[in-house]
Design a protein that fits this description.
By secondary structure, the protein is an all-alpha fold. It folds into two domains: 105 residues, Orthogonal Bundle (Rna Polymerase Sigma Factor, Chain: A); 65 residues, Winged helix-like DNA-binding domain superfamily/Winged helix DNA-binding domain (Arc Repressor Mutant, subunit A). 72% of the residues lie in helices and 0% in strands. The chain is built from eight helices and no strands.
Length: 170
Amino acid sequence: MDIQEEKALRLQIVALIPRLRRFALGLTRNGPEADDVVQMALERAISKIHQFQPGTRLEAWLFRIVRTTWLDDRRRMSRRPAESNEDAVNGFAGDSLPQTDALDLRADLARALGTLTEDQRAVVLLVLVDGLSYDEASEVLSVPTGTIMSRLSRARTALMQALSEQGVRP
């Protein structure tokens, strides 16, 4: 990889930071911890930029690094109380809703996301929020595509149930 290719790759990485943070926030449910995970993941990515295979999806490579960093960090640290999923659910509740309705929906979605297992939440964030295909999510999470599909199906059911229990009409 020459200097120009590496420079272009670094610019693409910078452009993906908001999506990486949203993914990390959805995994950690803790803003400062999500920032730390993204910071560590970006350091890893930049130090191993020569390992990136041109022609493959940069975002999948980075999401995988974020998830691996989070798992490594979880193994090292004791659990902290969860905070908000607000940034993660912004991908669900768009700006097209009136302000108060959007805030209510975001809060409802944040609570519903909190009821999912970690595996289900990761799949929801990758597929429904970030728009990765099943194959891409499979690559990021290192599980078969069928597993992605079943986790997403169970997650959708759990989200619908949680929202229903909150009195939200899907």
